[in-house]
Write a structure and sequence with these properties.
The chain is mainly alpha-helical. Helices cover 71% and strands 0% of the residues. It has helices at 2-18, 30-33, 38-41, 68-81, 85-111, 114-126, 131-135, 140-157, 161-174, 181-191, 197-222, 235-253, 271-289, 295-308, 327-348, 350-374, 378-388, 393-405, 409-422, 427-439, 443-456, 461-474, 477-490, 495-508, 511-524, 529-543.
Length: 544
């Protein structure tokens, strides 16, 4: 009965802390991963294709990620509620609540300590670095990975080895860092009294077998085993690794100075940071190797140690060197240690222990509640990035796109200029600044920006297509058609390029060629009203 009340309280706190996040919209990578996949999601029969595809094959982008369960959930969501963001956010919140409950149950099963389980789960529920994983729908893979990893451990603790292995495989299909689970089990069993490896070797062999099977599937789908550039240790990589470790340790201890986009420039190397990072790793090793270490602290230290390895950039991460979402699962180990300290204090001095846990939870929860507002929309998100790191050109560029989508052309242009001042080679920013000039009627400056973008990125379809549009407005029809033809050759799957080329052919009097391009548009975008109308006009002209 008491456990039920504690679980109810944990659910209540989790709901209160994240309630304001339910009002958020789709942000950042939600656009390519969810919004732009509507055509695919509306064909449930194709859902099985996800099992043999990378995380974003359907966007014509090859990524090194194989996370089919995450995309399956988007197919399911789209079937139930279309593109209403409230329900997507509610699902993320429910998954986070499930992680909190599973964490509580696992600690109770392993350590049989009610207060330890409650304090640890409470701190995890409100920890600020978790906000990114919960508030951004596209980070749901982190939540799934944590749900299945904890389920695997809980099944194992309760003696159900088959379900444990199945849950581990599901965790791997959610996100790659689940790979550390067998290493954690091995080290924890090796350093914990009462574990008989002669009896349990079949369990570890099962985890190894599942891991090998996952890598075989991954290789067949992606053609590679690893998600990054591979391991390598030049001096620059070693500096990055130590800076990354330092930042992760800082976020554990001080989860208040947060940033949604950490760049390598953020994570500058210094001897002091390197010393702190190395000291942190040594402390973790000593903590879980020393025999007198309390078991919850040993487990927490080992969980952190192994959890940090996949995000350390030993194998370089393609997306970002550090992200708060990377910490979501790893933080379980840190709050377990904090929970042990709070439990011990409450055992010796009940009032002070409870008061300390309450004040810490309130402070962390308030910061998380505040952090949810950052993820409300793209303007609030990217504005937060530029405040956290004013020298980040990508943050300024993305903020410009957000303003542009809301009709704030002047603010958008200002952000594009700032991004280019920080990084003149940012081709996409030049294209969008050129589009701004074209909208203002300054075709000369627009053409110059598009040309510069093409020098920087010769295969930029966006730059080539917009250059063609600018030429057409200037009356340079031959030049326009040349650019449209080039954009079609670069990306034959882009209906806008075929449409522009078709309209260019029409103006040149090449009606059969124009009709062929409008037919191509309809193959890529069935029912496009403009293409249907133009094609009918071309057929009428050809018949006459």
């Amino acid at each position: 009965m008491r456990n039920g009340k504690m679980l109810a309280f944990l659910l209540l706190v989790t709901g209160i802390v994240y309630a304001n996040g339910l009002l958020s919209g789709f942000v950042w990578d939600d656009k390519p991963l969810i919004i732009e996949r509507q055509a695919f999601f509306s064909q449930p029969r194709k859902a099985l294709d996800l099992l043999v595809s990378s995380d974003s094959d359907f966007l014509n982008i090859k990524t090194p990620y194989y996370r089919p369960l995450n995309t399956f959930s988007y197919v399911f969501d789209h079937y139930l509620w279309g593109l209403h963001p409230f329900w997507y956010h509610l699902e993320n919140l429910l998954l986070h609540a499930l992680v909190v409950i599973l964490f509580y149950l696992l600690i109770m099963e392993v350590f049989e300590n009610e207060r330890l389980a409650f304090f640890s789960a409470l701190l995890f529920a409100v920890y600020p670095v978790n906000a990114e994983a919960v508030d951004a729908v596209f980070n749901r893979n982190v939540l799934f990975c944590s749900v299945f990893a904890l389920s695997s451990l809980l099944f194992l603790a309760r003696g159900n080895k088959i379900l444990s292995l199945l849950a581990y495989f599901m965790a791997l299909l959610s996100k790659e860092p689940a790979i550390v689970l067998p290493f954690f089990l091995f080290s924890y069993g090796l350093t914990t009294k009462g574990v008989n490896f002669k009896k349990e070797w079949k369990v570890l062999a099962g985890f190894v077998g599942v891991t090998v099977f996952y890598f075989v599937v991954r290789y067949l789908v992606l053609g590679s085993f690893l998600p990054g550039e591979g391991a390598g240790f030049p001096l620059s990589r070693l500096k990055l690794i130590t800076a990354v470790y330092f930042e992760h340790f800082r976020l554990f201890v001080y989860p208040f100075k947060l940033n949604a986009l950490y760049t390598e420039q953020n994570l500058f190397f210094s001897p002091l940071k390197a010393a702190a990072a190395i000291g942190g790793v040594v402390l973790l090793l000593c903590t879980f190797l020393v025999k007198k270490t309390p078991e919850p602290v040993r487990a927490g230290a080992q969980w952190i140690f192994w959890g940090l390895l996949p995000v350390s950039n030993i194998i370089k991460i393609p997306s970002a060197p550090v992200a708060e979402r990377y910490q979501y699962t790893i933080v379980l180990g840190f709050v377990l240690i904090l929970g042990y300290l709070a439990e011990r204090l409450s055992r010796e001095k009940a009032f002070f222990g409870m008061a300390a846990a309450a004040m810490l939870s309130i402070a962390l929860g308030a910061r998380t509640f505040e952090r949810n507002f950052v993820w409300h929309d793209n303007i609030s998100l990217f504005s937060s990035m530029t405040r956290s790191d004013p020298q980040n050109p990508l943050a300024h560029y993305d903020l410009g796109l957000a303003y542009d989508s809301r009709g704030g052309l002047e603010k958008a242009a200002s952000e594009f200029r700032t991004a280019l001042a920080l990084k003149p080679s940012l081709a996409d920013a030049r294209v969008d600044l050129g589009i701004y000039y074209a909208k203002r009627g300054d075709l000369e400056r627009a053409v110059q920006e598009f040309k510069t973008a093409l020098v920087l990125s010769p295969e930029s379809v966006k730059a080539m297509l917009n250059l063609g549009v600018a030429y057409a407005k200037e009356g340079r029809l031959d030049d326009a058609v040349r650019e449209f033809r080039g954009s079609v050759n670069l990306d034959p799957s882009m209906p806008e390029a075929h449409m522009a080329l078709g309209m260019g052919y029409e103006k040149e009097g090449l009606f059969r060629e124009a009709a062929a391009e409008f037919e191509n548009v309809l193959k890529l975008d069935p029912g496009n009203p403009l293409a249907v109308n133009n094609l009918n006009n071309m057929r009428r002209i050809i018949r006459n």
